Amino acid sequence: MRSTWRTLQGVNIRDIALVCLADALVGASFGAISVAADLPLWLPVVMSLVVFAGSSQFIFVGILAVGGNPVAAVASALLANTRLVPLGFSIGAVFENVSPLKRLLGTHLITDEAVAFTVAEKDEGGRRTAFWLCGIGLFVTWNIGVLIGTLAGGAITDTAALGLDAAFPAILLGLIMPALRDRATRNAALVGAVIALVASMLLPSGLPVLLSLIAVVPAMLSTAPGTQKEPA
Questions:
Q1: How much of the chain, in percent, has pLDDT values that exceed 70?
Q2: What is the rounded average pLDDT of the residues 32-57?
Q3: Rounded to whole angstroms, how far apart are CA atoms 99 and 93?
Q4: Residues 55, 175: contact at Cβ < 8 Å?
Q5: DSSP for 53-65, written as a single string
Q6: How far does Cα 90 stand from its chain's mean position?
Q7: What 3-state class would DSSP assign to 206?
Q8: Helix 124-155 vs helix 112-119: crossing angle, to nearest 10
Q9: What are the backbone angles phi and psi of residue 67, rounded to the nearest 5°?
Q10: What is the per-residue DSSP string for 68-81?
């Protein structure tokens, strides 16, 4: 018990708690937005338990809300979630010498926030504690928030009066803003937006989003290790 407490002392529990609280509020917004999009009440709850990836869930619901194809919604959400693959490798030591079941559970709990708190710790014990504490805390608070938002959204007759239609693009914009500091990412986003805008005049809903992903290819090629020039 004493060694566990010493490990906990090395982890910023207060900051983790604040992030979990903020995550619950975003989860409530997701639940309410899903109801506003006329999706079944059970869908955001089950999605949050099984998928547990906020940005991907927002993307999925957003595409369906504008009448997009479910296949396009799933493809876009999966693409957004691929960022978790390199994040998982960065904290691989956390899953060393653990049972397969615990490793599977830990993989499900990988989020941007959990990885950030994990890599901030200096020793192995602190990293393990930070990951599990943040991962489990976020999973619990996110799902509680989604459930509350879903029930509240279902009890409101006019969800548009609360401005939920503006909440989704605002949250999504907040999620992508940090990534736009990178020039290659920013250029890809601008090109993708132009492609989607033009395609939306010609193609059914959902397809322009998939077509806009073409803009990601040049950005990936420009940042590949073999394409970077050595300084003179």
A1: 75
A2: 87
A3: 13
A4: yes
A5: -HHHHHHHHHHHH
A6: 17
A7: coil
A8: 160
A9: 85, 20
A10: --HHHHHHHHHHHH
Asked whether the beta carbons of 58 and 37 are under 8 A apart, the reply is: no
> What's the first-to-final CA gap in the chain, in angstroms?
56
Quickly tell me which residue has 């653990």 as its tokens. 98
Question: DSSP per residue over 122-181, as a string?
Answer: SSHHHHHHHHHHHHHHHHHHHHHHHHHHHHHHHH-S-GGGGTHHHHHHHHHHHHHGGGGG
What's the predicted TM-score (pTM) here?
Answer: 0.67
| Amino acid in the structure at residue 195 | I
In tens, the pLDDT along 174-198 reads 656 766 777 877 888 888 888 888 8
pLDDT digit string, tens, across residues 58-85:
888 888 877 777 887 888 788 777 778 8
Residue 37 identity: A
SS3 102: helix
Task: Match 């806009």 to its residue by tokens.
Answer: 212
Q: How confident is the model at residue 142 (pLDDT cuts 50, 70, 90)?
A: very high
